[in-house]
Amino acid sequence: MNSTEPKVDLSFKLMGKPIPVDHGYALYSAVSRIIPELHTDDQIGIKLLRGRYIGNGLLDISPFSHLILRLPVSRITRYIRLAGHHLDIKASKLTIGVPQTKALIPSAAVYAHLVSTKNGHDPQRFENEIARQISSLDSKAKFAVGKRRTFGIHGKQVVGYSLMVHELTAEESITIQEIGLGGRRKMGCGFFESRRKR
Fold it and tell me: Measured at the alpha carbon of residue 43, what is the angle toward residues 41 and 45, in degrees to the nearest 5?
């Protein structure tokens, strides 16, 4: 694949019962069971599901909840076949509905609900690594670290943070949305979105 190939968001409506707030790894596993190629596809990012918190660590899947994959345009035909399948997420079954694609929108600021890095449990090391990654893009953008969050992978708790990156050029904004910052992008981490409304 051409590394300069543009990426888009492939968005599917979801229907189903409440799911755990901490569902990133379970969501990745569920999608992988339908499309095993996801395991080795390093071009894909998956957004954490949105819903209404109803207590007891659960999110209610609202009529506005979507499964969103960020992927190169050439991957659309591979992943569009998720439509009509079911996702089994920790005893909750979600039905995947009709898909649509959305272009990435540049803005001076982008936000990710969760970003994780190696040794990210140490806030200073996390900030140093984010600064290094931004600098590696030849960007002078600033960033602000938000709320500390934990999430589970293979029974272990991993630390991450919400993150705002700002003072971006249009090109830098798209680049960060396309490649993310930190790791675990298939598990909902490093999924940046424009602060402008679509």
Answer: 100
Q: What is the CATH number of the domain that holds 89?
A: 3.30.70.1890
Same domain for 11 and 99: yes
Count of the separate structural domains present in the chain: 2
Measured distance CA(72)–CA(1) in Å, rounded:
9
Average model confidence (pLDDT) across the chain: 93
E strand spans, 4-91: 7-16, 19-20, 45-46, 52-55, 58-60, 66-72, 86-89
DSSP state of 177: H
pLDDT digits (tens, 9 = 90+) for 48-78: 999 999 999 999 998 889 999 999 999 999 9
Is residue 198 over pLDDT 80?
A: no
Strands (E), 17-121: 19-20, 45-46, 52-55, 58-60, 66-72, 86-89, 92-103, 109-115
Of residues 160 and 196, more confidence is placed in 160
